[in-house]
Structure formats: C-alpha cells, structure tokens
Amino acid sequence: MVAESFLPQINGVANTVRHVADRLLARGHELLIIAAGPGPDSYRDVPVLRARSFGIPGYKEFPVGLPDPSIERAMAEFGPDLVHLASPFIIGAYGLRSARRLGLPTVAIFQTDIAGFARQYPWFAAADRGVWRWVRRVHSRADRTLAPSTASVQQLVQGGVPRVHLSRATRWPM
C-alpha cells in the first residue's frame, strides 16, 4: 500500500488505509505500507516505510511525500501481488511508476478531490486545471481506479480516466 497519508495523520485517506490494512490482515495477507512523513514505523506488526516529505505552506501539519528510490527498492524486496495506491498524487504517482517498472498490477483509490482541495487555498487555486490533468494522468496509468460514489465515478469518466469502478465497502465482509 502506498499512501499519501497515514498515521499519525487523522483524515479520510489515513483512516481508509488503516481499515483496508485491518481487513487484509484479518484475511491473512502480508502487507507493506509506504507512507509520507514522520510517524510510526509499523502498524499492527506491518512495516511502514516512511518517505521523505515536506509540509505544504498554510497546511504544514500535512506531510507531502517525495519520490525516493527506497520506495521502489522496498517494493521489489517485498514482492507484492498488487500495489494499492491510496489517493495517489505525488508519492502514489511514484509508487505507480515503480510498480509499472516492476511489472506489478495496481489499483488506485480516488477519494480526495485534490483539485477541489486546491481551490480552497488562494496560492494554489490557479493550479486547478493542472492538478486535474495530473490526477487524470496518474489514474489513467493504474490498472483500475476505484471511486467511492457514482458522482466520483462520473467525474473521473467525464474527465477521461479509463477503468473506473464503483467501490462498495459493503461488499467487503468483516
């Protein structure tokens, strides 16, 4: 799992990564979590590789992960069957690139409207179209993108993202 956000952050992406990890562990899967910023180096005995990061001006408490060769090395050493990209943008895009280079299948989870988020910050609002182009580029390169609602599916499809599917958490038995 390559996550733009994870513990100690408390937000939708970090919480979803934690819940998915819990369910995969309950089914006996082995995991490696790659996450941005400082924080614990394990979660329920799952190793957490911490990528270098920086804080966004005006939102410094949110670490933004930076591409780092250690990410691809860790993925190669771990040898996953699938790479789960949690709300990929920067570190997730690098994780996707690494997965492609390693011949690994990917699933990208769309759960943060990053372009909409950018519009909330005056210094970043002008980048709205560029942010959306980047989101489309990243998700278009994933083998599958899961979206949490029909509105999100429509937004992605209308934006040119292929292979978008509705994620139904209720399909995941506990």
Word description of this protein:
Mean pLDDT is about 85; it is low at about 170-174. It contains six helices and ten strands. The chain is globular and about 40 Å long. It starts with a strand and ends in an 8-residue tail after the last strand. α2 (about 70-80) packs across α3 (about 90-100). The strands form two sheets. An eight-stranded mixed beta sheet has the order 3-4-2-1-7-8-9-10, with helices on both faces. A two-stranded antiparallel ribbon has the order 5-6. It is of the alpha/beta class and about 170 residues long.
In short:
The chain has helices spanning 12-26, 69-78, 91-102, 114-118, 128-141, 150-158, and strands spanning 2-3, 33-36, 42-43, 46-51, 53-56, 59-65, 83-86, 106-109, 144-147, 164-166.
- Given as residue ranges, the uncertain stretches (5+ residues, pLDDT < 50) are 170-174
Question: Structural class, from helix and strand content?
Answer: alpha/beta
Mean pLDDT across every amino acid position: 87
Total helical elements: 6
Distance between the termini: 19 Å
- What's the helical proportion of residues? 25-40%
Give a quick account of the main beta sheet: strands, pairing sense, barrel closure.
8 strands, mixed
Question: Outline, from the CA principal axes?
Answer: globular
